[in-house]
């Protein structure tokens, strides 16, 4: 496996001007033929005042799996789907039998759409398109196209269906939320068989933003990915112990992505002078990416640091571009902790104080199947990220990372991610 790790970070979203009549494969055909009816049960009866959260266990790991998924039950009756949770994009979509023009293999049967279409003029549809480019050739439907940083894409139509969700308050609700019925998917370089993507970005269409506008949870997303694989996502702010978290303001310069603004790279507790890095937190990316110059600096520094140490570069190990072997195969990253210094990112929020994001060796190295260690920080320029730098899953392990869209803050704290959190009363996960 070459270092083709990927990113769901959204790069582009455009309207397609897809016509119902001009394409035999268009979504509209489904409705010409079909006579599906939506089940009109939507009495929610929830208590808007009750603070509540949703906790979703996540499966997967950085290596060897290279992806994560959460299970959501969607539709009436609800059916399970494995979705890739992505803080780098807003839209949730499922591979969809509309019928499907091009779908990729999926763990479950493709989603069968209902006919509860989101109209083109709906604010949720408008939020998906850049202002000015939003045309409504077919007013009753909302066409979308998303393209991700790894080259993967989905084209489809927005509709509403019910999501079965368990809240920490004990309630089980089935709110109707907008999702994409994706009938034309192209796999990207980091392709894994998946039923769809769970969009957790900043925008209005994000699932948490929709839940929040229905008064069900606060627009706050947290995740805790365990270094041993698995972990969980949390929607809502019911279960955080706010005192332990390092907070930094979300940068307003990035309207689409979660970023605390410019960072400086620190190595072994020392300043490098490499500042102004545009960092984006992206759970849809397994690895961390630095743009070419910073990547160049880091790899040269690592190579210098390792001279005279009992580790040799292992070009025969193709797991990732840069691997090192020891005298005998390593069993754990702990075996090399004395050779690899901690890195850190220092965010200067413009206020007096700075927030530091620590990257111990576990946050930037993987243990390959050959028993070598490989650098899990990759050259972002090589994959077309230009001057974006991405903090991927590898660097978010064993941390609680929180995106608070209510307060426009990003926070993090060391976290024990192996156990699901319980509601705040008498609970602590540190
Ligand atoms: C998704 O998670 C399930 C467990 O819920 C697991 O069996 C499956 O292999 C995972 N799929 C992918 C593509 O990671
Ligand atoms: C929600 O709770 C119900 C009842 O406790 C349980 O059967 C179901 O598996 C839960 N669903 C999810 C997605 O956790
Ligand atoms: C990073 O990728 C770019 C584009 O492919 C390449 O020109 C550059 O040499 C690479 N940098 C390093 C340090 O490998």
Automatic annotation (TrEMBL):
Residues 68-413 form the Peptidase A1 domain. InterPro entries: Aspartic_peptidase_A1 (IPR001461), PEPTIDASE_A1 (IPR033121), Peptidase_aspartic_dom_sf (IPR021109), TAXi_C (IPR032799), TAXi_N (IPR032861). Residues 1-25 form the signal peptide. The active site is at residues 86, 282. It comes from the Eukaryota. GO terms for molecular function: aspartic-type endopeptidase activity. Keywords: Aspartyl protease, Hydrolase, Protease, Repeat, Signal. Belongs to the peptidase A1 family. PANTHER family: ASPARTYL PROTEASES (PTHR13683), EUKARYOTIC ASPARTYL PROTEASE FAMILY PROTEIN (PTHR13683:SF800). This is Aspartic proteinase Asp1. It comes from Malus baccata. The lineage of its organism: Eukaryota, Viridiplantae, Streptophyta, Embryophyta, Tracheophyta.
């Amino acid at each position: 496996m070459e270092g083709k790790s990927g990113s769901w970070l959204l790069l582009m979203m455009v309207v397609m001007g897809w016509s119902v009549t001009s394409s035999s494969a268009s979504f509209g055909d489904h409705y010409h033929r079909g006579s599906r009816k939506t089940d009109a049960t939507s009495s929610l009866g929830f208590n808007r005042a009750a603070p509540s959260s949703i906790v979703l266990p996540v499966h997967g790991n950085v290596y060897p799996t290279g992806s994560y998924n959460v299970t959501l039950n969607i539709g009436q009756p609800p059916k399970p789907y494995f979705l890739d949770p992505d803080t780098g994009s807003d839209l949730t979509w499922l591979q969809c039998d509309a019928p499907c023009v091009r779908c990729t293999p999926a763990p479950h049967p493709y989603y069968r759409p209902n006919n509860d279409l989101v109209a083109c003029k709906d604010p949720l549809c408008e939020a998906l398109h850049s202002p000015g480019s939003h045309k409504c050739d077919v007013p009753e439907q909302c066409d979308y196209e998303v393209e991700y940083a790894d080259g993967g894409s989905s084209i489809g139509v927005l509709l509403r269906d019910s999501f079965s969700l368990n809240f920490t308050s004990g309630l089980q609700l089935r709110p109707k939320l907008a999702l994409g019925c994706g009938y034309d998917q192209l796999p990207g370089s980091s392709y894994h068989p998946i039923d769809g993507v769970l969009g957790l970005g900043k925008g209005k269409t994000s699932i948490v933003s929709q839940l929040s506008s229905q008064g069900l949870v606060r627009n706050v997303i947290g995740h805790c990915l365990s270094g041993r694989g698995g972990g969980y996502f949390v929607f809502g702010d019911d279960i955080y112990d706010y005192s332990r978290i390092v907070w930094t303001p979300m940068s307003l310069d990035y309207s689409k992505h979660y970023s605390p603004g410019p960072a400086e790279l620190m190595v072994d507790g020392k300043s490098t002078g490499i500042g102004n890095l545009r960092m984006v937190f992206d759970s849809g990316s397994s690895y961390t990416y630095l743009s070419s110059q910073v990547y160049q600096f880091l790899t040269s520094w690592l190579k210098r640091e390792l001279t005279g140490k009992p580790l040799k570069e292992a070009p025969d190990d193709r797991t990732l571009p840069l691997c090192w072997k020891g005298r005998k195969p390593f069993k754990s990253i702990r075996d090399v902790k004395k050779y690899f210094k901690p890195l850190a990112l220092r965010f200067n929020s413009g206020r007096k104080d700075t927030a530091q994001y620590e990257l111990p060796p576990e946050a930037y190295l993987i243990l390959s199947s050959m028993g070598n260690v490989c650098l899990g920080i990759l050259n972002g320029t090589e994959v077309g990220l230009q001057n974006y730098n991405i903090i991927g899953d590898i660097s978010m392990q064993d941390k609680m990372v929180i995106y608070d869209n209510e307060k426009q803050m990003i926070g993090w704290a060391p976290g024990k991610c192996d156990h699901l959190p319980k509601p705040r009363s008498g609970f602590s996960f540190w």
